[in-house]
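Hi V.,

Quick status before I head out on leave. The structure for the redesign project is tokenized and pasted below; the design run finished overnight.
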């Protein structure tokens, strides 16, 4: 893995700090898996539509020449008949031979921006935004391909924003408000902190398998205002959804993932109130009121991307963030 970066940092007035950086890396000699028993390219279909003749020819059951040989007893080749496609493999005596070796690669580029305010006047916050792209070539689209598929990584998240802040509320002794408070009033109004954290991130890229698509890829994406769990993308953009028409025994050309077609991302805000009481010289108690997913944003898992599924384009699960949660606790510090 080769890593490289450079950045500019600047101290700003009012205790602000600014950092902008380019950070990238390139992975080489990544592990990939290669199959050594594919059906030869010359026998696979190159038709953009279902080639039933090729499918029937390769899937037809024929006499198995390995039947009765002791070394094949109890294996998938121990039956009297097997598919013609199996016998036309480069090494028909094996149902599958695969090996892993270091031939994959990847690259990552990112612009990272950070703005911080160091603690002053009872306020501090940190914010970071990343704009990035992550490409990889760690698999073959077809077992017979000579080159790895260069495709957007499933770990690609073009945008990520995180913001966190702490505010010591300005109430109580030696504070701007109620600075002369004493006794019970001082204990009630002083020592409060408000904390918040926001996390936003793009969703992962989607793919549709060995699908037949005859439309415009840009038409698949729906505007945010029209996107929902019942219709996450445009299922009528050009997908052939008839199971009788689906491809098989073919050389695939439809990419495995698309950068512009994505699942739901992260949109989460947490907030908490802390109140610290001093009990004695070395003992303090802290009351905590915390909320998780404070805005109660629903965050969805990836939609169904199988064109022949009755649930195609719909979402049937939420991410682990779940619904809004409230937590009250008392903590003793000593």
């Amino acid at each position: 893995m080769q890593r490289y970066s450079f950045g500019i940092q600047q101290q700003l007035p009012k205790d602000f700090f600014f950092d902008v950086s380019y950070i990238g890396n390139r992975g080489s000699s990544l592990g990939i898996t290669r199959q050594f028993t594919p059906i030869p390219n010359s026998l696979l279909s190159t038709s953009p539509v279902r080639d039933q003749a090729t499918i029937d020819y390769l899937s037809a059951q024929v006499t198995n020449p390995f039947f009765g040989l002791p070394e094949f007893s109890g294996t998938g080749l121990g039956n009297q008949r097997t598919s013609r496609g199996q016998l036309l493999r480069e090494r028909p005596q094996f149902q599958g031979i695969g090996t892993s070796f270091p031939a994959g690669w990847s690259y990552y580029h990112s612009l990272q921006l950070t703005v911080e305010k160091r603690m002053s006047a009872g306020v501090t916050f940190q914010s970071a935004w990343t704009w990035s792209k992550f490409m990889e070539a760690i698999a073959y689209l077809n077992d017979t391909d000579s080159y790895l598929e260069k495709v957007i990584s499933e770990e690609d998240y073009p945008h990520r924003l995180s913001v966190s802040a702490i505010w010591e509320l300005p109430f109580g002794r030696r504070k701007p408000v109620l600075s002369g408070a004493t006794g019970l009033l001082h204990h009630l109004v002083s020592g409060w902190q408000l904390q918040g954290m926001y996390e936003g991130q793009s969703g992962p890229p989607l793919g549709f398998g060995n699908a037949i698509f005859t439309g415009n890829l840009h038409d698949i994406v729906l505007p945010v205002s029209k996107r929902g769990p019942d219709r996450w993308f445009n299922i009528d953009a050009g997908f052939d959804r008839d199971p009788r028409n689906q491809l098989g025994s073919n050389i695939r050309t439809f990419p495995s993932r698309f950068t512009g077609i994505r699942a739901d991302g992260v949109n989460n805000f947490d907030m908490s109130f802390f109140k610290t009481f001093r009990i004695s010289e070395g003992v303090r108690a802290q009351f905590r009121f915390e909320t998780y997913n404070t805005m109660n944003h629903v965050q969805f898992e990836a939609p169904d991307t199988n064109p022949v599924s009755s649930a195609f384009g719909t979402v049937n699960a939420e991410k682990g963030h779940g619904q809004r949660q409230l937590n009250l606790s008392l903590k003793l510090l000593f």
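Above is the designed sequence. The mean pLDDT is 92.

G. will cover questions while I'm gone.

Best,
W.
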